[in-house]
Amino acid sequence: MLNGLLTFRVETGLFNLVRTGQIVMELIRPIDYQLSRLMVVIGGALADACFSIPSVVALGVLFLHPEAPASTERALVFGVSVAIGFLIKFLLSYVTAALSIWTENIVGLVWLRSAITDIFSGAVVPLTFLPVVVRQVAQWSPFQAVIYIPLAIYLGHGPPISDLLVQCAWAAGLWVMAKVLWSQSLRRLTVLGG
């Protein structure tokens, strides 16, 4: 369920804007493009959540009998962690989207980013079940901060504050990386031959 809420199509949307030349209209607006994309994605995720969360939770409680969070504090920290995980997944998608200016087709990059994110975030298989080498790679990557860390907090594994600090560090680093890459990509942008 968590991975489903963190799914959006930042890359293909930006690629289509670049391909059609409509990116120019987005760039002349007096607002930071990265921040505006984040707000659009948040709006879409909130709308999706209003419809999907109640039914998924009801079905989950009815058929799966999930565990409650380890404590009330963990439940609150879990909510914060999910929000940071959402931001990190957005930024990973935005970095891929910025690369769309450098390519003729973004589909391969989107599939690659999606596969890597799903595997190294713990969305497909919990990281604890992966071979040691793969798990160590995942633990040194931003991907674990998307799904694995929020779920570890929910289940009461590990110190939640250090997990949140890891997420915040990745979010800050990816925000800067996305800004720099977007700035470099705009220098290469050519719309309608100009």
If you had to describe this structure to a student in words, what would you say it looks like?
It comes from Acidiferrobacter thiooxydans. Keywords: Membrane, Transmembrane, Transmembrane helix. It holds the Pfam family ABC2_membrane_6. The protein has 194 residues and is mainly alpha-helical. It has one domain (2-188). It contains 9 helices and no strands. α2 (10-20) runs parallel beside α5 (72-98). The N and C termini lie far apart (44 Å).
Properties at a glance:
194 residues; mainly alpha; 9 helices; single chain
Give the overall shape: globular
Terminal CA distance reads 44 Å
Tally of structural domains: 1
Helix content: over 70%
What summary fits the major beta sheet?
none
H and E string: HHHHHHHHH
Main structural class: mainly alpha
Rg, rounded, reads: 18 Å
- Overall residue-averaged pLDDT value: 87
Number of strands: 0
Low-confidence segments, ≥5 residues, pLDDT <50? none
Roughly what fraction of the amino acids lie in strands? under 5%
Topology:
Elements (H helix, E strand, L loop, with lengths): L1 H4 L4 H11 L2 H5 L5 H31 L8 H27 L8 H14 L11 H8 L8 H8 L4 H29 L6
Helix pairs in contact: 2-5, 5-6, 5-8, 5-9, 8-9
